[in-house]
Amino acid sequence: MGTLTENDYHFPPMLEVQNVSVNYRGVRALEPLSIDFAAGELVGLIGPNGAGKSTLIKAILGLVPASGRVLWNGLPLRRQRQRVAYVPQRSQIDWDYPTTVWNVVLMGTTALRGWWRPPGREAQRRAYAALERVDLVGLRDRAIGALSGGQQQRVFLGRALAQQADLFLLDEPFTGVDRKTEAMMLAVFSALKAQGKTLLVCSHEWGDRLQQYDRLLLLNQQLLADDRPEGVMTLENIHRAYGQNLQLVKPSADLPFVC
Amino acid sequence: MLHVLTDPLAYEFIRYALLMGLLIGGVCPIIGSYLVVQRLTLLGDVIAHALLPGLVLAHFWGIAFILGAFISGMLGTGLITWIRAQSRIKIDAAMALTFASFFALGIVLLSTLNTQLDLDGLLFGDILSVTAEEIRQAVILAVGLLVLVGLFYRPLLFLTFDRLGAEAMGLPVSWLNAGLMAAVTLTLILGMQMVGVILAIALMVGPATTAYLLVKELHQMMLIGSGLGAAASVIGVYLSYYLDLPTGPAIALVVFTLFLLALLFSPSQGIFTQPKLAQPGPNRR
């Protein structure tokens, strides 16, 4: 901690998570925590399975009952939900649902046109541009059940892009995807960052990829660390989050741990 | 040959039954598709059984049976939601309990209130006694439901596909879901008039499930399902005329026969007919 200087924040915090905690049927799922996010920040949310990463994302979105406040530009986020794009975990979706790639990406335009309005020309143009960005134009009429894991993840990335949000919350987007999809997602993240968008990406994997983030949040029911990757990825932090009995793969490497 | 089809039309009650069959058989699968894609088909069955107490009470108090059945059905849905919200009890247990209790309450009311309602008709349908007034009501209800599905097609697609995603984007998911449940209840009231509370689920779920085996999009599933439902109803009415079968069960069995045909011979997913090689990059579980 303490390696961030004032110069690291060029913008005032856009997203403020203030004292947010979650109780689930009398059990505390998330200890109270406070985090600020600046515009143009790519933040990784890491921690073991069951650490409460998805719960934190859902609490920020107001999808689970939580105490505390979540502000976007100083106002409650729950009244500006169209500003947030949410990419759920792939396992949360029924991929046998009878619909096509095109229809799912078009859902991303729901917020800006008003949920009750049918998608007009502008919405379709935006959905098409998003499809091009995630390289799925050729598959747009395919049933979502006939896609590979990586393609399914790209459909949801495309839906988020079609929304043209300012804040992106992605739940385990790298799970079970191919190299092409991984490279494409990282490129999209960089491009969004350059446009001043804020991204929070959660992942239970611990590896070199984490160096790509501006900042890492280490979570296990409580916020254990909030710092630059090199500051978070220490042996001490790993033990605090994952316990002592981790498997050492390469004792001398920088990141010798698998979870 | 043609007289096989035209002869029964000499009777007014058959003409009415066919008309009602086309109407109800066509509408039920459209709303039923929403149950199938959300894996909530059994909820439809619960609501159908929960209609019974309301039907009996409405008849006893002399109010419109649609109103009584609607309130009763929505109370059933509400009870399930409430039990789940208040405890760790899972949806299947909550549904089973609600199903049995409402049905039992209906039977108790029927036997104690002395309403002269025909239990057989309520349970298995009484399409051959349909009146012109009932057809008029059904037309209004069906047209209303179709207009609503047309207006809310995209939001409901989003809701039933990815409820959390829809809520995150600011869709009023609670209201949309309540509206959908109201539509399901009204549709079941329609279906019940033709095949009874016990078999109403067959019309809601059967043709839609059959269509699911044939197409890849929700609106296609609704359209094909609608055609299959109407066809099954008409075939059922003719079968019951010529073979002297009870009409409701005859329709339910035709629905299942059509399903079986699709299961075996669907071009894309039939057991005998599906392509040997799956499409590139399948992700079937």
Automatic annotation (TrEMBL), chain B:
Topology in the lipid bilayer: Multi-pass membrane protein
Name of protein: Metal ABC transporter permease
Superkingdom of source: Bacteria
Localisation per UniProt entry: Cell membrane; Membrane
Keywords: Membrane, Transmembrane, Transmembrane helix, Transport
GO cellular component, one term: ATP-binding cassette (ABC) transporter complex
InterPro entries the record matches: ABC_BtuC-like (IPR037294), ABC_TroCD (IPR001626)
Record-annotated membrane-spanning stretches: 16-37, 57-82, 94-115, 135-156, 168-189, 195-215, 222-243, 249-266
Xref: Pfam families: ABC-3 (PF00950)
Family: Belongs to the ABC-3 integral membrane protein family.
Primary location recorded for the protein, binned into one broad class: membrane
Record lineage: Bacteria, Bacillati, Cyanobacteriota, Cyanophyceae, Nodosilineales
Gene3D superfamilies: ABC transporter involved in vitamin B12 uptake, BtuC (1.10.3470.10)
Presence of the UniProt keyword Cell division in the record: no
GO biological process: cellular response to iron ion; response to zinc ion; transmembrane transport
Signal peptide: none
Keyword Transmembrane on entry: yes
